[in-house]
Every structure is written in C-alpha cells, then in structure tokens.
Amino acid sequence: MSVLRALYETYNTALRANLVDRTEDIGQKTVLLPVYHSNKRSNGNDIIQITLTACGDFIKAEWVPKDEYIIYPVTEQSIIRSSGIAPHPLCDELSYLSKEINPEKHEKYLQEIDSWKEFMQQGQINPTFEAITNYIYKETILGDVIRGILGNTSYHIDETYVVHYHAENQKEKQWKLEKIFVTFLVENLNALQKNNSVTSDQQLHINYIDYIRYINKNKPKKYCNISKELTYCATLHRGIMGNAKIISISNHNETYYGRFSTGEEVVCIGYEASQKIHLMLKYFLENKNNSRWLGETSYLINWFSDDIENNEGLQLTNTISTYEDTDSDLEDDEEMVSLGGQPSKALNDYLTGRESMISPDSKFYVMIIDKISNGRVSIKYFREIAKSDLYQRVKGWYESTRWSYFNPKLKKYMQQSPSIYRLTDYIMGMEIEEKKTTKVSCKNKSLRAKTVERLIPCILEGKRIPIDLVRKMYYNLCKRSSYGDTWNSLVQVGCSIFKKYKIDYQMKDEVNELLEEKNQDRSYLYGRLLAVYEKLEADVLETGSKKGDDGKQFKDSGNRSTNAERLWTVYTKTPARTLMILEDRIRPYKERLLKNKPSSHIYYERLIGSLVNNLAENASFEDEKNNPLDENFIFGYYAQKQDFYRKRNEVKEEEFAVEYIMEV
C-alpha cells in the first residue's frame, strides 16, 4: 500500500470509529480535524476570541490563552494563500474581517459568508453561524476588538493600522492589527448548556462539509488515484509543515514532458481525499504518541491500523526519545522493552509470552518525513508491516543488542538494549560538559537525524547494522584519552553494537558477556591482558592513596589514569610492541604489590603468564603479533573487568587483591 493510500484509509477508519472532530477533547489531546477545516495554536497574543450573544451582539474580546487550539473552516484557496486574496469562510485575520483595514479583502470575505448562508437557507441556519454573521454585518468589529482588549487605555491608530498605546507605567507599545486572527464564541441562553464556538460546534462543521460537497458537485470530475472514485480533483494541496507540501506540481517542466502535457496530469487526487490524507498526517505530527522529532526538520511517524491513537502504549517513537541522563532510560527488567527501556505493556506481554493473540489483519505503519525546502516535504521512508512481524523483529533487535548496563539508582547491572538515540550519540558524538554533567552527545543535528534514519530499518526490517557505523564505534573506543566519566558507558554501548555486528555478519547465535577462558582469539586475549594490567596498577594506586605497611604514601598515588589507559590507543594498533613498554612501566607497581599484597601479586603474575602463553601458542602469533586489534579486543577487556568485579563480590577481600569498584 502506498503511503498516501495508507493515510487515506486510516482517516476513513478513524471516521468509522468516531475519532474525528472530537472537540470535547481539545483541551486534553490532539483532535483529528474534519475535512475542509484547519486548526491554529495560540501563542498568547495572536488570536482573539470575540464573545457574542445569541442575537449577535458584542459582549467581550479577549486573547486566546497560549497553546490553546482553535478550529475553523477553510477553502481550497485560503489554506494555501500563496498570493492574491483568499478569505477563510468565517474566522480570519482582521484585515479580512474589518472593512477599514482592507476594503477589498473584506468584500471577498463577505462574499464567502453570503455564499455559505445562501446554502444554509435551503434548510435550517445554524444558530452559531447566524449570530456571527449578524455581528459581522454590523461592521463594528475593529472598534470592538480594540476597546475589548485595551479597555480604558489611551491609544491612537496610525495610517498602517498599528495601534500605539501606553500600558500603566510602561513605554509605548505597538499592536499591529492586520495579522490578528479572530474566532468567535456564542453564549447560550440556557445556562445549563455549553456555549458554542466555531471551534466546538460540530453541527457547524458538518454543515460546512455539506456546503463544500454541494459546491464541488458541479465542478469537472476525474478518477481519483487514491479513492478510485469519480470526483472533483484538487490542483492545490495544503502544506503539512508550514507551506511545505508532500503533494505538489514541479516547477521544472522536464520532469513530466514526454509523458504528460501538464503537471496536473501526473497524479489526480480528489479534493476530499487530499483533505483526509493531509489532516491524518497533520494529526500524527501533532500527536506525541505518534511522532517524534529526529533532528533538524526530520520526523518519525508511526501508527497502527487497529489503534490509531496508540492507546495500548506500543510506541516506537517514545522508545527512541531523547534523554538528559545517559542512564535515565534504564528501567526494571520486567517492565523493559527493546528499544531503550520505555515501558510498553502490549509489547512486553508479547515478548514474555503472556499475550500471543494478534489480529492477522492488524498493520503497523512507519514513515520518516523531512522538510527539504520551504515548499517541499520529502517522504524518506515508509513501510507497512504486519503487527505480528513487527513484534518479532523488535524482539530480534532486542535480543541482538541487549547488554548489561549499570543502573546507578538500583546499583546493579541490568540487561538493556540501548535506545537508538543513545547508539547514535555514542557512535557519532563526543564527550561534552553540559549543565555540570558529563555526557556523550552528537551536536550535529543533521548527522544525528540521518544516523537514526539508517538504524530504523535495522529494527523494522531486520536489516544488518551498517558496517561503517560499527567501524566508527570501534574508532571511538580506540581513543581512550578522549573519554573520562563516560568511558564505561561507551564500552557497554560498544559491546551492544559489536554483538549486533557478530550476529549479523559472522552468523553468531549469541555473544557471551562472561569471561571465556577457552577463547584463544588474539584480540580477545590482548583485551584481557590490558584489563589485567589496568587492574593491577589501579589496585596499587588505591592502596598507595591510603598508606603502605611502612607508613609511607606511594608517590604516584591519587586519582589519575593508569599506564594501560594512557597507552590504550597505541596498544590497539601495535599490541605486542606496546605490551613490552607497558610491562616495563608496570614493574614498579608489581614490586610495590609484592611488598604489600603478596597474594595479589602471585595471582596477577599467574594470570598474566597464562594469557601470554596462550598468545604464544597461537600458530600465527609471530606473523600477526603487531597487527591491529579488532572488536574482540573490547569483548576480552570487558569480560576480564567484569570477572574482577564478580570475584570481588564472591570472595573475601584478603583472598583477592583490594576492593575493586568499576566506575560507571
């Protein structure tokens, strides 16, 4: 199914489910608009609501509160309004509603009202509409608005219809009347009933829809490519991100010459079908359950055929949301879902086997749109997936990327699949200081968005992780000196990525986090060795920061990096040569350890000797000993450090070195 057809069918599904024009919910949730209508969000000083009596007498004018939405009818021309005069039929800017500001615009506005009123007179005139038109015909709106907003404040209006006034004990302020948007509310005579406004009066909305359908009946008809119906097809389509459109005619004739005579022949979309497509997409963009900003002008949108509002909580976009704390997306293991720790009961029930029944007709849709210019919106990605397939693919992603992450709040390690944003930041970002915290972040928003877009098909389509992202992650891990407090988190994210890489490219069934004593891979062994040298020196430094048996403090003690950490980068490139340098630099620490902790000295010497012997037994050791290391180096390093941490909790301190606490 094409993306336009999917949006069209989804709107029709919502219509049948009575999810359209639920104006009673406008203060609590996003409202899916009826066709031939639009909405506008107030910024606190750009929309005025005029309150009228049922007879159309002025009562008051006041600003619509900030972030509150209004709904109003539009025409095919007024929703575009790229040039010329094109009034909305009822609510509009003061330049249309007031004859003083622009008589030509006002005349066109009155023609729209008269045409709609003529249609109403064939049946019963809507009371809200009648009250508003009675008021409009009085031509007092400009003075009413100024007095209603400014009250007794003195003011004067210049020739460009800018109001100059002085608020109490303040400098002169200016108020440009021309662009002020006006909507209406009509008070109900019955105190027990709600007042009707252009926004809330659903009967007024239905009447306007009938009016537009009546007008379009007499217009030329073609077969709509989306609805397959013989209907009036629009040539102008509304913008979806400002004036940027997903459906438009190219300005470059060469894109269709040779196949079509005019650009309009490329695609025929009915006016009502176009409305449904754009209003459905507009709803998804405004609904946080369905959309997520990826960066720059790119958005990810998802929905379900049987759960348009995402009430069940399975929200792909929420699971890749941004975060301030790199560990803030870690949740309890029983509530965790695959894409970053955000709880989703529906998905979790499926993954754990508590719920396996899914409608065979249920579909999941996902798309990525990007505003590529002021006039164009690109649909960069779209997929229709059976819901059962989605669950299986998400499960596969989780199992192939989960790793043990430390939760500082619960003070324990938990199996976690990092969010896509976290993966992106650690692959493409760098360590920064922000708000007195250290974190890894990708400041290039465009690069961040494009990387997220590349990772999404790995989840939804089961595609292999891009090899260049794996290499970039390994390159970051080779630069140990570039990371401080975030280093251990970087290693954990790296292990998640390398695990995915091994499953995708090396056909591994599983990648073990625990130490593999029998693993003879040279990179793995070199990683273990470096972890041992790092641990040995760290033990001595920690002991020295207290005091030795002779009461003297070790001269190199303190909070500083070890030799293993400082030689990390060159070690990954020429491990054998660097190992000799490291051994020479670590000798004083071994001597100190022998003097203060002989049992630990014996343990480390035996472990180092065993690892070196295992390396030497490799048939190709001499030929490859100084070749650069691969991702197995990180697995070996991580596993050895975790083994130290595990043993610290299993044996008494006097039987195994000094206490070792991994920093995370």
Keywords:
single chain, 664 residues, alpha+beta, 3 domains, 4-stranded antiparallel beta sheet, 20 helices, 15% strand, elongated, disordered C terminus
Protein model, in words:
- The chain has 664 residues and is α+β, with helices and mostly antiparallel strands.
- The chain folds into three domains: 3-274, no CATH class; 288-505, no CATH class; 522-655, no CATH class.
- A hairpin with a 6-residue loop joins strand 11 and strand 12 (230-231).
- The protein has helices spanning 3-16, 94-97, 103-120, 127-136, 141-150, 202-216, 271-286, 345-351, 387-401, 420-428, 445-460, 467-477, 487-505, 522-545, 563-566, 568-573, 575-596, 598-616, 621-624, 632-650, and strands spanning 37-41, 47-52, 58-63, 69-73, 92-93, 155-157, 162-166, 172-176, 181-186, 196-197, 222-223, 230-231, 291-295, 298-304, 363-371, 377-386, 403-407, 412-416, 430-434, 437-441.
- The strands form seven sheets. Strands 2, 3, 5, 9 and 10 form a five-stranded mixed β-sheet that branches. A four-stranded antiparallel β-sheet has the order 13-14-15-16. Strands 6-7-8 form a three-stranded antiparallel β-sheet, with no helix packed on it.
